[in-house]
Amino acid sequence: MRLRQESHGGVNVISMDGRLDSETAPRVQQELQALFPDDGLVVLDLSRTMYMSSAGLRVLLLVYRQAQRSAVRLALTGLSDDVRAIMDATGFLGFFTVVESVEEGVEALTV
């Protein structure tokens, strides 16, 4: 799993590329914490996340909680059908603003 951070119109976009599973989750969690701002706008782009296990869902929950504790507005984009179905079944979709593209995420957060 590789993480990459870019800025799009003042919005931090963090892209995740690879598998988010029990093997990669601890490192990804640490890297996300380091990339996550104390305030502002963040789009988490999962369009290149090929697989997400329950350990990956836990990472997303921790990201959500981190955003709630700080002044960060967060959106998710690029959910595969499988990831979306898992997040829907577990109720996780209700925690996040979910959009179809990075551009939609930037727009949703800056309105």
TrEMBL record:
Entry-linked SUPFAM superfamilies: SpoIIaa-like (SSF52091)
NCBIfam families: ant_ant_sig
Organism of origin: Actinomadura luzonensis
Domain STAS residue range list: 1-109
InterPro entries cross-referenced by the UniProt entry: Anti-sigma_ant, STAS_dom, STAS_dom_sf
Name recorded for this polypeptide: Anti-sigma factor antagonist
PROSITE patterns for the chain: STAS
Family statement: Belongs to the anti-sigma-factor antagonist family.
